[in-house]
Design brief:
This protein has 224 residues and is mainly α. It has one domain. It is built from eight helices and no strands. Helix 1 packs parallel to helix 4, helix 4 packs antiparallel against helix 5 and helix 6 packs across helix 7.
């Protein structure tokens, strides 16, 4: 994955989209079928049905978190707070779907999972892809912690990274099981897209609700 190139922010999307396509071409050249990759047309109805249900469930969770003031801090992200509408739209509609979700789902739940299932029992293949997925998120977790000023000490930072890695590994198990049980990559794609893209929208909404809830005189003391 290419996170960014100095002076070329669009490289993230272009490089990762191209890498996803190259992986599919390479897997097909190695004899992997469309069904093994979760890309067969026959799996589309189930993928759309279950993926749509997952999308709606995640959306409902974010709406609930926004509606409960005590839960809104969980949605805040300093990396989102300063974005304008166009930047948020780019993140939600372009960068996340093409640069993150497409690449990660093709790499982990299509190509890697298909390759490992030819070598290992189903649970072993799922476990390895999930573990690699968790490790993959170490660097993004460190970046998020730094941006939000969380867990500044080395011990707390290590614990936060380990916790995030384990949670991502758990998500990797869920995504892989959804991919296998529905025979469609579309299912984890829609769940992943909902988690990330709707998360950005929810984070932006949380920041705006917090700002709207503060009156101009908050923090000021009135004269006797």
């Amino acid at each position: 994955m290419v996170p960014r190139l100095r002076g070329r922010p669009g490289a993230y999307v272009a490089a990762n989209t191209a890498a996803a396509g190259a992986l599919v071409v390479a897997a097909r050249a190695r004899g992997r079928s469309w069904a093994e990759l979760g890309l067969a047309r026959s799996g589309l109805p189930a993928g759309l049905r279950w993926g749509g249900a997952c999308f709606a469930l995640v959306a409902g969770g974010y709406v609930t978190a926004l509606a409960v003031p005590g839960l809104r801090p969980l949605l805040r992200d300093a990396r989102i707070a300063g974005l304008d509408g166009g930047q948020i739209g780019y993140q939600v509609l372009v960068r996340i779907p093409l640069g993150t979700v497409l690449w990660e789902e093709v790499a982990f739940r299509a190509v890697l999972l298909a390759a490992l299932r030819r070598l290992l029992p189903g649970r072993g293949a799922t476990g390895i892809t999930a573990a690699v997925f968790g490790i993959w998120h170490v660097r993004p977790t460190l970046a998020a912690l730094a941006a939000n000023g969380v867990a500044g000490g080395p011990v707390l930072r290590s614990l936060a990274v380990a916790g995030a890695g384990l949670s991502m590994a758990g998500a990797g198990v869920l995504f892989a099981e959804l991919r296998l049980r529905t025979s469609s990559l579309l299912t984890p794609v829609l769940l992943h897209l909902a988690t990330n893209s709707l998360g950005v929208l929810a984070g932006a909404a949380a920041h705006r609700l917090d700002r709207a809830g503060r009156s101009p005189g908050d923090g000021a003391t009135s004269a006797p």
